[in-house]
Prior knowledge:
Layout: E1 2-5, E2 8-11, H1 18-24, E3 32-36, E4 39-40, E5 56-61
Parallel strand pairs: 1-5
Antiparallel strand pairs: 1-2, 3-4, 3-5
Amino acid sequence: MQIRVNGKPTEVAAGTSMAALIDQLALGGQRLAVEVNEELVPRSRFAEHRLAEDDRVEIIHAVGGG
Length: 66
């Protein structure tokens, strides 16, 4: 199925979880903020959140500082 990740068309398997997408994009272990269709998905829900056809995913790398 087709989704958009940061504006780029991306092909993923039907039923892909957010956690699986993060692994597919080699972003595991990084501090990330993720929105799907303009709604924040908490890290605690990555494993259970299933992506659907035409979802718009925005992934932002969290940067620490002070």
